[in-house]
Amino acid sequence: MKGGIIIEIKIIGSNCSNGMKLKKEVMRAIDDIGFPISCIELNDEKSKKRYGIKNVPALVISDAIKSQGCVLTSREISKLILAATA
């Protein structure tokens, strides 16, 4: 982590069943990593359009879409977060 950067994660579509599963995996990844990470849930059409999301749930890390329409494991999410800090 460089200079105290806080990573921002957005879960778009966290109110569906797979969105809830993705949120759980994101929380596990955040706990495993152990540095400050902001996690925001967005469940509105405006957010989907802003990011061009076709399938929910979607995972956005540092304003870059990392996945759509699937539930990543906490290990996969951890790798994406750590890559975003490099």
In the CATH hierarchy, the architecture is 3-Layer(aba) Sandwich
Low-confidence spans: none
Average pLDDT metric:
92
Number of helices: 3
Binned, the helix content reads 40-55%
In what range is the share of β-strand residues? 15-25%
Count of spatially separate domains: 1
Cα-to-Cα separation, first versus last residue: 7 Å
User: Overall 3D geometry?
Assistant: globular
Notes on the structure:
This protein has about 90 residues and is an alpha+beta fold. The protein has a single domain, classed as 3-Layer(aba) Sandwich (Glutaredoxin), CATH 3.40.30. It has helices spanning about 15-35, 45-50, 75-85, and strands at about 5-10, 35-40, 60, 65-70. The protein has a four-stranded mixed sheet with strand order 2-1-3-4, with helices on both faces. Strand 3 and strand 4 form a beta hairpin. The longest helix is centred in the first third of the chain and has 17 residues, at about 15-35.
Features:
24% strand, 86 residues, alpha+beta, 3 helices, Glutaredoxin, four-stranded mixed beta sheet
Task: Write a concise synopsis of the structure shown.
The chain is of the alpha+beta class and 86 residues long. Helix content is 42%, strand content 24%. The relative contact order is 0.26.
Write the layout of secondary structure elements.
Blueprint: E1 7-12, H1 17-33, E2 37-42, H2 45-51, E3 58-61, E4 64-68, H3 74-85
Parallel strand pairs: 1-2
Antiparallel strand pairs: 1-3, 3-4
Helix pairs in contact: 1-3
